[in-house]
Amino acid sequence: MTMRRIPVVVHRIFAVIFFTTYSLQAAETLAAAEARIDQAAAQFKGLTANIKRVSYTAVIKDKTEESGNIAIKKVKAGDTRIKIDVLEPAPRSTTIGRRKYENFLPKIATVQEVDLGKYANLVDQFMLLGFGSTAKELEASYTLKVTGEEMINGKLTSRIELIPKSEKVLEHLKRVEMWIPLTAGYPVQQKFHKPSGDFEMSTYSEIQWNPTLSEADVTLKLPKNVKREYPLKD
């Protein structure tokens, strides 16, 4: 080894030591992340954000992307309403509550409606993974673990893995990943892994915390001639 090569090697060694030390110091505990989650849950009334959603189908190795905006309003404990307006590539609007799912397709003036009553417990499991849930509520249904840190949209986040405890839920959802900023208690990205290898990932930006939202902001705006379909009706 020449004298000229020694500084390069030394620099590399110090770089590795620095990176390792920084990672060990920066990686937060689950308790620290849960403290922020609880603080956010206590304050949560609603939010708006831009949303980018990626859906992957493993069997055909196909990936699709949608973008738009989302509004979430907490009406009361156990009653949270969600509205998603997809703008690209094909406009549509979706609302989700504990009892009903509606999907409006403006090009064909049709609303697809699904009664979620008999799926209420399963819906509750998925709704927990949104915004406003406490750590205790999450831990009642999922096993949580901090798996690392990652930059999402310029924010340093803790990546938290959630494994469903319910065998019934595991039939539909293998695991979930949530990315929570070190400076906040809500996710800026969520990834839902299905047993088939499929996944759906939602990334949020331009988040507005606790804006003033009316009932109309989380309700579909429908034309008079709209047609209703019930795809899962018995």
In short:
The chain is α+β, with helices and mostly antiparallel strands and 234 residues long.
| Share of β-strand residues | 35-45%
Write the element-wise H/E pattern from the N-terminal end onward. Answer: HHEEEEEEHHEEHEEEE
Give the class-level CATH name: Mainly Beta
* End-to-end CA span: 77 Å
Task: Provide the helix percentage.
Answer: 10-25%
Oligomer: single chain
- Judged by helices, strands and strand pairing, the structural class is alpha+beta
Which fold name fills CATH's third level, the topology? outer membrane lipoprotein receptor (LolB), chain A
3D shape: globular
Number of domains as seen in the coordinates = 1
What's the CATH superfamily, by name? Lipoprotein localisation LolA/LolB/LppX
Examine the secondary-structure arrangement and name the CATH architecture.
Clam
Give the low-confidence spans: 1-6, 8-25
Work out the number of β strands.
12
Strand order of the largest sheet: 7-8-9-10-11-1-2-3-4-5-6-12
Radius of gyration: 21 Å
> Number of helical segments?
5
